[in-house]
DNA sequence: ATTGCCGTAGCAAGCGCTTTCTATTGGGTA
DNA sequence: TACCCAATAGAAAGCGCTTGCTACGGCAAT
């Protein structure tokens, strides 16, 4: 029923070994023979049996790209770039380096993350790229470190993209981390420079590196300006008491969703009706924040400035255009793809920090009356 | 180095066959024995060798989900839903039905679509889900039909989601098609009812089923209202001559991108400065259209109404909230996932049409002066 | 007691490919 | 002319797992 290597060999009047070598192109085969084999392959419409091939060669051409939320362009852009870089090199003509880059959606669930890693391990994946922020739960970190070490042991190349390096994991090929802290700091500094003193912050979900780093940057900027109490920021979103400059309780956590941005902003506005700016965990959340501000009858940026993070494509189209922090998602994804393929040399120490650039646009302006 | 089934068998003091049966759970094994095996698996940290298993069993647990653009939430939502449905059933406890659902990004390129299908075929994928509009190029249709038939032949379940059925392809498990034509018609009818008579249309790329169907719906509505010349719509976007009611040349094609929407709208506005509404191929394009309308100093919806298609999450957040056509992307994706798994019975004839619902919001209103 | 089965476990034959090692050939060189 | 080597092709041994078939106890029925 199905055509096998042996069938092709028979038709081309050569041995199976020769067919295999023609297909893999890693052994000299006379031009005439090669031609004959290739024609037989075509005639018979032969398709290599992946599992058999992987079993015999003890390697596979599968490359897994793990994302936290496939419906979020933040991940889509990185994954697409990586996939292009990986699947793109088919110019070889032959099946040589044809990798199968696939993206796996964890939905942000640690269990699914591990499950996918196991499944990829089963398949003896050639490489794995983990994108986006990691969960900071100690147990999960241990589980991940162990799992990744095993993968690396089995020859799988592990690359992190937009995720900080795992402590003590030298098994990893490279990790490209975004400078979320620096970006967060610059964004808030921008607001401070404009004259804002009462700034609300809609943070992402707790226990995510991305969330923590961006928030740290924000708090660092405030602290440098002599505002707020850095200690109050994390873990006590519903803060109480009075801070040096009334920044207490101006941080609310929630998922990276538009809805969360909407509700958190309403909450912030209730807690501090006099705030003049809202910084969101990312652009999607910022959109929700904008809606909430408007629904309160306030104008952007005249009454309240709003800022996001990531600079997703739609951000420049928002009205007013969203001030945000640009992350070179495409470039990072592409680079991760090349690193996974081994077509780019890893950065020194396997760690690279990717700069986050402030994009000041129309959604932020000086507060109504600078005190 | 690596642990194999035999190692586990030795440790559990049973034969490899028994271990295999415990792991696959498709053959009676005494409880005590099972326990022993499971413990050995744990102790040894054994991970099944996927390729070997697939080779021997002549099946694999890979499920491929093909998307046209992974950075577009339209696809992300469907893919995520399908993946959840497929990867979600791990409740079985054992490795039983653990499928590896992966998404492959074709980037809209027919070659990559075929390449991915071949790669999936190599892996003897358990199922393949094709999402979104198809290319209407005759050559590609033939190639696809042939390829899908071969996949189906090899036991791969093929499901189409958001894509019209392939003519004469009974190899396919099911196809869930969106009622793009009906949605397009209702959307334009809505505009006509509001009193619009001069409506610009920013269509998607040529030769895509989605593009054609939506446009057909639009033109059908116009024709039913005695406006426009249906024959002028397709294939002659830069129309010439005069139509019955001056709808000529009010259709411009371009990719499904924000930028395309922006430029096309500028073009439409130049051709017909008196148009009172713009219908976009999808929400992303509509966002670009909105930007263009505003940049021309026109207000939405007072001066120009704008409408989109898909009802992506951000559409309700646009200002003003975008009138659009809702497609139940998540539900469709989930259903496709179940169909691929065989956990839902296919619709009669393998074909289901999914209704598209008009969402009239603030971006559309009666034109300034109804003539 | 015998027979017949049911419930379990093992044997062993592959699944379709890769790859090491071993031929075979046809010059080029001594 | 004899010899050696480079270039190319084949033989065959697995890779690690699944599964049809066989084997072996007991237990119920005869």
User: What fraction, in percent, of the residue positions of chain A are helical?
Assistant: 40-55%
Largest sheet of chain A: 6 strands, parallel
Give the oligomeric state. Answer: homodimer
Architecture per CATH nomenclature, i.e. the level-2 architecture of the largest domain in chain A: 3-Layer(aba) Sandwich
Q: Give me the number of helical elements of chain A.
A: 13
Numbering strands along the chain, what is their spatial order in the largest sheet of chain A?
A: 2-1-3-4-5-11
Low-confidence stretches of chain A: 90-96, 230-245
Strand content of chain A: 5-15%
CATH level-1 class of the largest domain in chain A: Alpha Beta
Mean pLDDT of chain A comes to: 91
For this structure, the CATH topology of the largest domain in chain A is: Rossmann fold
- Spell out the helices and strands of chain A N to C: HHHHEHEHEHEEHEHHEHEHEEHEE
- What's the gyration radius of chain A in Å? 26 Å
What is the SS-derived class of chain A?
alpha/beta
Number of strands of chain A: 12
Q: What coarse outline of chain A follows from CA principal-axis ratios?
A: elongated
How many domains of chain A? The number is 3
């Amino acid at each position: 029923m199905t055509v096998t290597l042996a069938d092709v060999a028979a038709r081309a009047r050569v041995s199976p070994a020769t067919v295999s070598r023609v297909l893999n192109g890693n052994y000299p085969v006379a031009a005439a023979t090669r031609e004959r084999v290739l024609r037989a392959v075509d005639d018979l419409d032969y398709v290599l049996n992946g599992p058999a091939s992987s079993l015999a060669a003890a390697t596979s051409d599968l490359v897994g790209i793990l994302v936290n939320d496939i419906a979020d362009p933040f991940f889509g852009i990185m994954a697409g770039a990586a996939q292009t870089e990986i699947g793109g090199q088919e110019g070889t003509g032959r099946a040589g380096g044809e990798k199968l880059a696939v993206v796996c959606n964890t939905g942000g669930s640690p269990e699914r993350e591990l499950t996918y890693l196991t499944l990829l391990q089963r398949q003896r994946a050639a490489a794995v790229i983990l994108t986006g922020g990691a969960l900071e739960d100690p147990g999960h970190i241990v589980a991940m470190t162990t799992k990744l070490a095993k993968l690396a042991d089995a020859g799988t190349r592990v690359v992190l993209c937009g995720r900080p390096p795992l402590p003590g994991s030298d098994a990893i090929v490279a990790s490209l981390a975004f400078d979320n802290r620096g970006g967060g700091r610059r964004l808030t500094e921008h607001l401070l420079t404009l004259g804002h003193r009462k700034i609300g912050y809609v943070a992402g979900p707790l226990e995510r590196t991305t969330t923590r780093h961006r928030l740290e940057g924000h708090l660092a900027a405030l602290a440098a300006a002599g505002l707020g109490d850095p200690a109050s920021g994390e873990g006590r979103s519903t803060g109480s008491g009075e801070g040096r400059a009334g920044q207490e309780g101006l941080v609310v956590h929630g998922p990276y969703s538009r809805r969360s941005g909407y509700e958190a902003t309403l909450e912030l506005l209730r807690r501090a009706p006099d705030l003049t700016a809202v910084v969101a965990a990312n652009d999607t959340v910022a959109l929700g924040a904008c809606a909430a501000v408007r629904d309160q009858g306030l104008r952007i940026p005249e009454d309240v400035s709003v800022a996001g993070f990531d600079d997703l494509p739609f951000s420049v189209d928002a009205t007013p255009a969203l001030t945000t922090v640009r992350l070179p998602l495409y470039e990072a994804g592409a680079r991760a793809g090349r690193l996974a393929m081994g077509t780019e040399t890893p950065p020194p120490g396997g760690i690279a920090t990717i700069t986050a650039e402030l994009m000041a646009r129309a959604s932020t302006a000086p507060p109504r009356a600078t005190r």
